[in-house]
Amino acid sequence: MLIENAAQELAELVRRGDADYIEAHLEESQASYMVYRGRELESVGRSEAIGGNVRAMVRGGWGFVSFNNLGDLRGRVDMAVRQAGMVGSEASQLAAVSPVVDRVSAGVDRDPVTIPLAEKKQVLDEYNEIIWRQPEIQTSNIGYSDGRKHTIFLSSSGSYIEQERADINLRVAAVAARDGDIQQAGLSMGSRGDLAPVRQLHQEVERLSRQAVELLSAPKARGGEYTVVLDPVLAGVFVHEAFGHLSESDFIYENDRLRELMALGKQFGSRELNIVDTATLPGLRGSYKYDDEGVPAARTYLIREGKLVGRLHSRETAAKLKEKPTGNARAINHRYPPIVRMSNTFIEPGAVSFEDMIGDIKEGIYAKNWYGGTTSMEMFTFSAGEAYMIRNGKIAEALRPVVLTGNVFDTLKNIDAIGNDLDMNQGGGCGKGGQMPLPVANGSPHIRISRCLVGGN
Which residues contact 223 (CB under 8 A, 6 or more apart)? Predict the structure, then answer.
């Protein structure tokens, strides 16, 4: 009840504040975590937090104040307004949205934070034991976290939105070594607060521990240009990292070159290529009903029939680019202001079966899962977690993990087959502007890229 009582006081202060616009967030959260390094449980804990923030706009300038106690709310509002007045020098621009009064539940039967730590530890102990049964394992890493948040958003335009959210994230990795050679394999998964998927990974953990050891004997790919097929996990990471961030409009309106590259109406791929970002899909980690500016979630086509048709917005970027807000202003917690972020980003499925996709490839590479990667504007480099040769239309021998490099726009144009098997990856989290890990999901069907540069020997 603490933040509900504070919200009543804050709503009046925000409504009466001397600014072009004011919004406030209040938040109560609980979390738990466990981290294993090798055979040992390295750290375990639970935490609780309470706090909020006030953000004000005056003459186009923002002021932002965050706090971890609920005292002196008038002072918080006044400070945010004074800060905004110091930097504002132009007309304030925010896309119009209707005020909303609503309450949104977490939608889970049981708060994951209240599940005893001993119960979670038992599951993770089982996974660690499975990894260490495999010969030549050098070390393992397991990281588990869960949390639940209750937030209240209110604004000077009359919005009052309560939302509850639960989240779970798990990372498991096995590292094998032989004669100074080291290889690893891993998995990550998450959910909107349901622990059941975390309890059902015994076969997947056994597979990844075997895979880490088998990679010690696998050959490296011969470097060069190949026809490459990406699985839904790696294709989803590609569309999120290489393309999705370019669609976040706070990058676009501040960068002349990016505005030219990402001009609406450009043809980026075949008519079969459709890329979407939406927080409206139930059950995904990137889903929500309202973003952190109180804007309803929407389904936004970024690419439709191969053509760039949309981008992701906050209210400010939508106004500056004279476009509609998309409900993509997000913050990881009350200590940060909302910035433009993806939610659930994916390539829509096509009509090609996996068998047909690889069937006419004489020599190519099938790349699955991922380790990591980097992007710089339109250039990307990604490391696959698994790789296999494709020979004469069949999956052949396993390879050491490969590195894929290229230009995102050339790569989109080179997608010549899109599978009929969409899958969404909910592990990990997105980082931007010092705010991470933000819960998101990304996905794709299998896709085939006709010309892709692969690093190897």
Answer: 454, 455, 456, 457
